Amino acid sequence: MKSILVLVAAAVLSSTAMAAAPATEKLPSGVVVEHITQGTGVQPTADDVVKVNYRGTLANGTEFDSSAKHGGPATFPLGRVIPCWTQGVQKMKVGGKAKLTCPAATAYGERGVGPIPPNSDLTFEVELVGIVK
Predict the structure, then answer these.
(1) Would residue 58 count as lying in a domain?
(2) What GO molecular-function term can you cite, just one (predicted)?
């Protein structure tokens, strides 16, 4: 009887720890979405205009851009950004925060842009503030 109680207690603790851990999804394109804070609002579609706070870093941790550098949340059509963003932000709900890990092919690929060298894997911390109607 004592061993059954121990097993039940271990199962409860394990499921509680799993519920507290961030949910991570790997999309078919290789984009990884790590949900840091689950939102409670609606999920955007690629046709929506979203309002986000973000911070972008290279694989070595160097920050190359952030919404804070531009004075606050950024607003843009979700279907007109890099594929990693279009795919990853659609997996979020308003109010949520996530880390998007973007393989180079879903970011800027061979071309690179500004401080981002060609063929760079990127990471973005994203907070989905809202959907603009």
Answers:
(1) yes
(2) peptidyl-prolyl cis-trans isomerase activity
Answer yes or no: are the C-beta atoms of 56 and 66 closer than 8 Å: yes
77 strand-pairing partners = 49
Q: Give pLDDT tens digits for 8-50.
A: 334 444 444 444 556 999 999 999 999 999 999 999 999 999 9
Residue at 45 is within a domain: yes
Residue 95 covered by a domain: yes
Kindly provide the b/e burial profile for residues 28-50, where b requires at least 16 CB atoms within 10 angstroms of the residue's own CB: eeebbbbbeeebeeeebeeebeb
Please state the domain count of the chain.
1
Structural domain including 123 reads 24-132
> Looking at the whole model, is its pTM more than 0.85?
no
CA 108 to chain centre: 17
Class of residue 64 by CB neighbours under 10 A (exposed 0-12, middle 13-18, buried 19+): middle
Contact by Cβ (8 Å): 76, 132: no
| Within-domain flag for 74 | yes
Q: 98: domain CATH number?
A: 3.10.50.40
